[in-house]
Structure formats: C-alpha cells, structure tokens
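Before relying on records like the one below, remember that each one covers exactly one chain. Contacts with other chains, cofactors or solvent are not represented anywhere in the record.
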Amino acid sequence: MLVQETIIKKKSGWIAVDWRELFRYKDLLWFLTVRSIKAKYAQSILGVSWAVIQPLFSTLVYTIVFGNLARIDSNGVPYFLFSLVALVPWTFFSNTLNESANSLITNANLVTKVYFPRLVLPLSSVFSKGIDFLIGFMLLVVVLIINKQSPDYNLIWLPWLLVVLLMTSLGTGMLLSALAVQYRDVKYALTFLVQLLMYAAPVVYPTTNVPEVYRMWYALNPMVGVIEGFRSIFLQTMPFPYTWVIFGSTVSVILFFSGLFFFRKMERIFSDVA
C-alpha cells in the first residue's frame, strides 16, 4: 500500500512567492472575483450602471466646480472631456485601494480557518474592479465619439499605461491590505488618503499648472504619467509625456515589488491578528 507524504519546507528567497501554487488556486481567485462583483451589484436597482454613474457624476461635479467656477485651465479642451479622461483610470485606482485594503479584514473567516495563498484576496479585489474600468472606458469611448475626438498614433502606448496603472494599484493595494490587518486605523484613514492622493495627481488640473522646477519630482507619482498619457492619446492636450511615464513606470515597479515583499513578510501573522 502506497502512502503519500507531504513535506513542508520553509520557503527561501527574497520574496518567496510560489507562483505555481498561486496558479493552482486560480479557481478560487476566479470565484472571489465573481463574488465581489455580484456582491456589489446584487439587489441593486441600477446594477452595473453604477460603473457608469460614478465617473459620469464625478465629472459633472468637477466640471461645475473646477471648470466653471474655479475656471481651472484644461489645456484647450472642454473641461468635461479633460476630467472624464482622467477619472476613468483614477476611479479604477481609488476603488482598488478601498477594496484591496479591506480584503483581508472582510475575509477574516477564510484567513483564520482555511489555508490558501493570501495574495488571492487583494488580487481578486483588483480584478473585480477591472469590470468597472472596462465599462468606464466604454463610456469614455462613446463620449469621445460624440465629441468627434479621436486618438492619435500614441494609442500604441495605451497598454504600457495600463500595465503601469495595474502595477501601481496592485503594489499599493498589497501594502495597504497587509497594514490594515494589524493596524485598523488604515481603514479609517483610507478615505482621507484617497482624497489626498487625488489632489496629488492631475485629475482636476493639468500638470502644466505645477511649477516646472517641481515637475520631475511630481512625475514620480505613477498616476501623473498615466493620466497625462491618457489625455495625450485621446485629447492631444500635449505631446506624449515619455519622461513622466518612464519615471512613473520605475516607481510603479518599486511599489509593486515592495508591496509584494511586505505582504509576504506579514503573511505569517495574518491568521493571528485578522
């Protein structure tokens, strides 16, 4: 009679992420992603329409307050388009932070009772928001067509911007989710943090409003290159900001691996403090 033995060894390496194990739990990742989407829209009158309403309503408010009242420069394009193009990637980023930061706490019953790669939880939070992003992006395309705006040849760089956006969201989300387990203050501070980050990115104003001497430092925020890249592609507000995107890409890679390393380092105590 054959007896199967399982030998558990301590993982080594700087990050020690078992990608093969993570792949084996792809069904769980899919289930949690779908569950998150259903939980958001279940028993909702408007359903997935909320994915359109959120950026559209925010754009209307920002157009009235910042475009009409404050008269903030919009680089020669209608302020409604100027802010909508920025809000599509920003809404994905901000929603991802809120969702992933609380992913371990809201699933504490799973964390404390069942073994699975904990990375599945923040990953599912990010992927579930991908549906909202796709719907918001389709809204943007429709609005651009109605306003007779077409992308230029720099559209080829859009996948690059999406990778930077995804890595920034994942890295920051993993970092905050690991912190939120041990420090519940993160949950309450997150609202203020997201609001602060929005004004630290060119969502309601152009980067050209930032003094030139500070722009390179300002571009270390990955969302600066992403947002201004979106505007350059779809509105041609400026030449494609290669330098800003490169700076932001570098920081996004650092954020991603730092968040991954910190998450893995803290993972061993999740079940004790969740």
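The chain has one domain: 47-273.
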